[in-house]
Design brief:
By secondary structure, this protein is mainly alpha-helical. It has three helices and no strands.
Length: 52
Amino acid sequence: MCLICVEIAKSKMTVNEARQQLREMRHGLDKAHVAEVETKLDEAEKAAGENP
């Protein structure tokens, strides 16, 4: 599990912060994991009501 996943799971990072971190870390991550993280962020956004 990457740092973004851990922090999102703990609610220590907002979705916007996580997306920023993902942009910065994208080149070092596996493409499949990037897709997984994006899905998690989309789900977190919906759950928080940030993207109705």
